[in-house]
Design brief:
Keywords: Membrane, Signal, Transmembrane, Transmembrane helix. It is built from eight helices and no strands. It is an all-alpha fold.
Length: 224
């Protein structure tokens, strides 16, 4: 069920691609290279959660939702910082292979593999930090007695914790993380927009001149 929910949420990235402006829309290969890193990271985090679950005490639903929300907030923040650090190092030390979203021209599989390994390392590091946080005695003491107080029905609690919240939060996280991972060259976006706007204005002006010229020709023909 969790895998199916993740797949359904992941399909939002297909819609996101079609929401991108035509001049900046990624080819399908680049889109796959970008989004597959998220899939790999999600598998790593899910495997870590399965491994951690027997070591947690208290209400399983509470532990699950707290763990999930930590992954979606603090974990995402750690991964974002790691991506930005990798992009900074790629520019400073001229290591294009670790510049997330950039794969060369033509796109190189080696760059994608390198970035997948780096992203997997970031996801593992983030999950390790969160696992240590969850093992702190004060955190264990609080969460072992915590309950989802607004929800009293066990079946409704299970649906909220396992289905509703993960589905919508996963859509948001996939969308936001994709913005981190896609390549955004500095200054290029504004230049492209300016160029597209200029070409549109030029085309409109050219169309107006053609219409004026046609009108003049019709007048001359009528006078003759």
């Amino acid at each position: 069920m969790q895998f199916l929910l993740a797949v359904l949420a992941f399909t939002c990235l297909i819609g996101k691609r079609f929401c991108e402006p035509r001049y900046a829309r990624r080819p399908w290969l680049i889109w796959f290279y970008d989004t597959s890193k998220q899939g790999l990271g999600a598998l790593i985090i899910h495997a870590a959660n399965v491994w951690l679950s027997p070591h947690l005490t208290g209400n399983p639903c509470t532990w699950y939702i707290v763990n999930f929300m930590l992954d979606s907030t603090l974990g995402l923040l750690i991964i974002w910082a790691g991506i930005r650090l990798a992009q900074y190092c790629a520019r400073i030390y001229d290591i294009p292979l670790i510049n997330f979203g950039e794969y060369g021209k033509p796109p190189m599989c080696s760059a994608w593999i390198c970035q997948c390994i780096l992203y997997a390392a970031l996801a593992t590091f983030a999950k390790s930090v969160l696992a240590l946080v969850l093992r702190l005695p004060p955190v264990v003491a609080v969460l072992s007695t915590l309950r989802l107080s607004p929800v009293s029905d066990p079946r409704l609690e299970l649906a909220v914790v396992m289905l509703i919240i993960p589905f919508f939060v996963n859509i948001l996280i996939f969308w936001v993380t994709d913005n981190f991972l896609m390549y955004r060259p500095r200054g290029v976006s504004s230049k492209i927009k300016t160029k597209v706007r200029y070409q549109s204005i030029k085309k409109d002006k050219s169309g107006s001149e053609d219409e004026e010229q046609s009108a003049d020709e019709r007048l001359l023909g009528a006078s003759v």
